[in-house]
Model the fold of this input.
Amino acid sequence: MSELINQNRRSFRWQLLTTVSALSLGIAISAHAEPSDKPSVWIELGGQLERIDGKEDPYLPPFTTLSSIPGPYSKISPSEAQKASIYSYGAEGKITFQPHGSKWDFTAGIRYGRSSNNKHTHEQTTLTTTFPNPRNGGVPAILTNAAPQFADFRVKNAESHTVLDFQAGRDVGLGVFSYTASFGIRVADFSSTSQVNIIARPNVVFHRHNRGLPGKYYQSPSHNDYKAFADNQRNFHGIGPSLAWNGNVRVLGDEDGGVTFDWGANAAVLFGRQKAKGLHQESAYFESSNVKTFAAAPYGAVILYNRPPLLHDRSRSIVVPNVGGLAGISFRYPGTKVSFGYRADFFFGAMDMGIDARNTKDRNFYGPFATVSIGLGG
Done:
């Protein structure tokens, strides 16, 4: 039943987007044919670089806390090795129609961003030990080639987000100061995936023995080798009512062109579905090259454990409050506008970024943007 509801919700969103897009295109064509002093349709295109908050929990199997000092986790911790990119890049577009002689306008907009990274981190420790020899005292030995301590992380992360807005607004002009108050519908779609592969040998123990030969000493290593894998997918789909206020203050020029300081604020309440599913698996092996007469271990590798995949699949309906704002500057010309600014959008509790247990986190985006607007009609 829940899958059917989600399919109906997605179908409704795309029908709404198709309807509004077709309506906007028709409006643009008709507006272009009507004579007027000012454009009745504005088409805006741009891009943004945004910082992302609310990353997934790191996958930390128990062996990632086992390490001698110095050890393979000294230079970079298992948590640091799994960090995803904190920046995303994307594009945006918007079409606005304002009938001639009316203070009302109608807007459809989309903003899309994504980020991804593939990381390979390998840390290896040079081991030095000293074993006693009755003839010449302690003799140091470099044992990296014999059995190095190491940690190897291969990580893939990807994230994408889409925000759609359909709004109707009323323009309020007060001389050099003007703003538009709008209401409408906001649709948000967030997704996040991660894959982690870990191979590690956090501890190595060297045993001294003489293999029955007096005066000759040998160092034989024994160690545990660990392998782990995790694959997680998380997403949120929501839709709800929205409000927005956008304004500008003329700094230079007049109504035909100049420079303005732009500002904006927005708020929404999104009703949607939050999902998190994935699996992780872990195995361990013991290996020793000691002779059989040494009681520590036999020859070769022994499987300590090979645990079956541990699955999780969570889904729940949630309500996500959303607030945001922007500040920028625009260079205005007849029929054209170029804007630069900084924008932030906060979606509270939107994502379940936990692994075995639910852990909700905000999904926040903030950073610089630039847009170019072209007016049609008139």
